[in-house]
Amino acid sequence: MQAFVYTAAPARIVFGADSSVGVAGEIRRLGLSRALVLSTHQQKGDAEALAARLGPLAAGVFSDATMHTPVEVTKRAVDVYRAAGADCVVSLGGGSTTGLGKAIALRTDATQIVIPTTYAGSEVTPILGQTENGVKTTMRGPEILPEVVIYDAELTLGLPVAISMTSGLNAMAHAAEALYAQDRNPIVSLMAMEGLRAMVEALPGVSVQPQDIKARETALYGAWLCGTVLGAVGMSLHHKLCHTLGGSLDLPHAETHAVLLPHTVAYVEEAVPDLLAPLAALVGGRAGAGLYDFAARLGAPVSLAALGVRPENLDPMAELATANPYWCPRPIEKTAIRALLQRAFEGARPE
Ligand code: NAD
User: Fold this and answer.
1) Per the database record, which ranges form the Fe-containing alcohol dehydrogenase-like C-terminal domain (predicted)?
2) Are residues 187 and 46 in the same domain?
3) Which CATH number characterizes residue 220's domain?
4) What number does the ligand 1 atom closest to the CA of 157 have?
């Protein structure tokens, strides 16, 4: 067996339909008493309802969370947090809201309770991406990792089907890359495969019956595992390409992951088919092609063209994505990456 190092992330996970009813109890258990509830504009109503339920434990609502955690928004939120005399944040939403909570915690040492409502997985990672003057920087550290995560599938019932599918594929991308991570280890590989299995079981059900609480619970369980492995081991080609394209062309986060995943997995599969064999068995055939068929069956976008990428973007993207060498089980070659991008642009099925 390959030698390994495993460090567990010290978070408390509370899982179950209706578990968000226990937020007040979690705040008290932590010895805290003033929670600033965070959300996006779209989820402001849910955040206000939660604050009303918390009564005197709520210090207010800040509903300006935005994609990519702009530092300007964080500064305003920190001012609100301090002015309200808050001692913790409750982040209700997807990766954008969780990102804001992490950014506040980084600056104020606020304790974080996260109630995730997408499958992005940020709630269980010690990673924060922030943007300032159009530049995105990523950092990691123990102070960024949320202390408590409450997974309540009831709150995901309203996540639109299209976002549910791309968000689920975003989660699967974390787990797929964990299978061939340079610093992979047996526990992380187990969690990654169980996360992938849960997603493959749940997403088809969610796509046809979004109100199916059992399928929603299974998807959220998968999201937890996939997020956990994202926080535990290093990511590779897939996340690098998504960051490059997403950042440079301002593409939507989950959709970009959904489109690129079959192609990046197919690229890596050429070099390490053994490491991806469990995923191939799960989706049928080869891992890359099987993921493509799975995403297509879910009705997820399968081409970069559908996300607004233009043919003239592909050369500069291939250049950028291969400029800084990074670890990948298969050498990163510009010609091969350009060909990968072409296939992803056209939405061609990987071989
Ligand atoms: P998001 O948080 O931006 O949410 C997408 C939209 O869906 C938002 O308008 C949101 O309000 C809405 N929404 C969320 N849950 C809903 C629900 N249950 N019902 C109705 N509407 C709902 O999207 P995301 O994909 O979850 O997160 C993307 C962001 O998270 C990106 O900025 C990405 O970089 C970051 N991220 C960070 C990490 C990390 O570890 N640091 C991991 C994954 C993603």
Assistant:
1) 165-345
2) no
3) 1.20.1090.10
4) 18
Ligand 1 neighbourhood includes 129 CB (under 6 angstroms): yes
CA distance 48 to 54: 10
Q: Which of 105, 122, 154 is the last residue of a domain?
A: 154
CATH code where residue 98 lies: 3.40.50.1970
* Distance from residue 129's CA to the centre of ligand 1 (Å): 13
214 and 140 share one domain = no
| For ligand 1, atom 35: residue with the closest CA | 95
Ligand 1 centre to CA of 171 (Å) is 11
Q: What is the whole-number distance in angstroms between the Cα of residue 270 and the centre of ligand 1? A: 32
The verdict on ipTM greater than 0.95 is yes
Q: How much is the pTM?
A: 0.97
Instruction: Express each pLDDT in 56-69 by its tens digit.
Output: 999 999 999 999 99
Q: Is the CB of 166 under 6 A from ligand 1?
A: no
Report the pLDDT value the prediction gives residue 340, as an integer from 0 to 100: 98
| Residue at 3 is within a domain | no
How far is the C-alpha of 214 from the C-alpha of 218, rounded, in Å? 6
Ligand 1 midpoint to CA 155 (Å): 14
Q: Ligand 1: does its nearest atom lie under 6 Å from the Cβ of 290?
A: no
How far apart CA 246 and CA 226 sit, in angstroms, is: 20
Return the residue whose CA atom lies nearest to atom 38 of ligand 1.
122
Please give the tally of structural domains in the chain: 2
Give residue 2's pLDDT band: very low, low, confident or very high (50, 70, 90): confident
Instruction: Give the pLDDT confidence of 62-101 residue by residue, as tens digits.
Output: 999 999 999 999 999 999 999 999 999 999 999 999 999 9
